[in-house]
Amino acid sequence: MTKTNDPLVKDGWFMEKNEMWPGQAAGLQVEEVLFHDKSEYQDVMVFRSSHHGNVLVLDNVIQATERDEFSYQEMITHLAMNSHPNPKQVLVIGGGDGGVLREVVKHPEVEGVTLVEIDEMVLRVAKEHMGEMAIGFDHPKVSVVIQDGVEFLRDKSNIYDVVIVDCSDPDGPAEGLFSYSFYEMLKRAMTDNGIFITQAEVMWLDMETIRKAVAFNRTIYPQVRYSYACVPSYPTGQIGFIVCSKDPTLDPSKPLRCWSEDEENKLCRYYSAAIHKASFILPQFAKRVLES
Ligand code: SPM
C-alpha cells in the first residue's frame, strides 16, 4: 500500500467524491503523488496511478488520465474541426493540459490556434508530468495566452472558425464560462460559419442541466446538437458535448471532412467518421428530453 500524507489519498486510493455526482465515487489506486499545490484559482494535483498512468486532478475532479485521455481530447476536437469546411483559425478556451492542442494541429489547414487558459500552473504541471498530452504546446502554429477566457473575448469579433471550450466543471474557476454573456461574446468572436463545442455534463447525472443548456444555445444558434463519448475515468464513464453551428445549413452531427481509414488509424485512437455520426445517436431517455 502507498504511504503518503496527502489529504486526498486514503488507504492508497484517490476517491473522486463530489456533490455534482452524489452517492457515487470512482477510485484510482495511487502509487505516488507527483505534484500537489494550490494555485491562485484551484487545487492542482498529479499522481502516478497503478493502472491509468499519470492522472491530472483539479479541485478533486479527474481531468485526464494517461490511459483514456485520448477519447475526450479527440472527440471534443475532431467533432468540431471535421464539422467545419475549412478551419483556419481555432480558439481553445481552457485546455491547459495541452491535449486539445495536440489534436487541433493534426489538421494541416489550420493556420493558427490560440489557447487561453486562466491557470498557468496547469500548463506547467502538464508539461512536466503529462508529457504525451502536452506535446501540442511546442507546435509553431500554437500561441498561448494566460488570461480569463471571458476577459480575452471582450474585444474579439469575427476571427475564429472553430472555438473549443475545454473547461472543468462549473463550480470552480470555469464558472464564468457557463454565463450568458460568455456565450454571447463567443458567438461574436466566431466567423459566419463558425462551429463551437463545449463539454456538457453527462446524460446519467443531470439531464435537466443538459436540457437547459441545449435550449439556451438554441436561442443563439440555428444548429445545436448533443453528442457523447466514453471516458472510463469520468463519473459514469461518459461525457457529453454540445456542438453548435452559426450556419443553419451545417449540421455538426455529419462530418463535412473525413480522413481516409488509413489516416484515421494513424491519427486517432477513438475518433473516426463513423464514431462522429454515431456519437449523436442518443439513448431514448435522453433523446426524449432534448426533443421535448
Ligand atoms: N483536457 C481535459 C480537460 C477535461 N475537462 C473536462 C473534465 C470534466 C470532468 N468532470 C466530468 C463530470 C461531469 N460533469
Structural features, described:
The chain is an alpha/beta fold and 292 residues long. It has two domains: 9-64, Spermidine Synthase, Chain: A, domain 2; 68-291, Vaccinia Virus protein VP39 (Rossmann fold, 3-Layer(aba) Sandwich). The protein is built from nine helices and 13 strands. The chain has helices spanning 69-81, 99-104, 120-129, 149-153, 180-189, 207-218, 261-267, 273-278, 284-291, and strands at residues 9-10, 13-16, 26-38, 43-49, 54-58, 61-65, 89-94, 112-117, 142-146, 160-166, 190-199, 223-230, 238-245. It is globular and about 55 Å long. 42% of the residues are buried. The mean pLDDT is 94. It binds spermine. The site of spermine has 18 residues, from strand 6, helix 1 and helix 2. The site of spermine (SPM) has 18 residues, from strand 6, helix 1 and helix 2. This is Spermidine synthase. The active site is at 166 (proton acceptor). Residues 11-246 form the PABS domain.
Short description:
InterPro entries: PABS, PABS_CS, SAM-dependent_MTases_sf, Spermi_synthase, Spermidine_synt_N, Spermidine_synt_N_sf. GO terms for molecular function: spermidine synthase activity. With 292 residues, this protein is α/β, with parallel strands linked by helices.
Q: The CATH topology of the largest domain is what?
A: Rossmann fold
Overall structural class, as computed from helix and strand content, comes to: alpha/beta
List cofactors, ions and other ligands: spermine
Number of helices: 9
| Structural domains: how many | 2
Tell me the number of strands.
Answer: 13
- Helix content estimate: 25-40%
Integer average pLDDT: 94
Largest sheet: number of strands, sense, barrel closure: 7 strands, mixed
**For the terminal residues, how far apart are their CA atoms?**
50 Å
Adjacency order of strands in the biggest sheet: 9-8-7-10-11-13-12
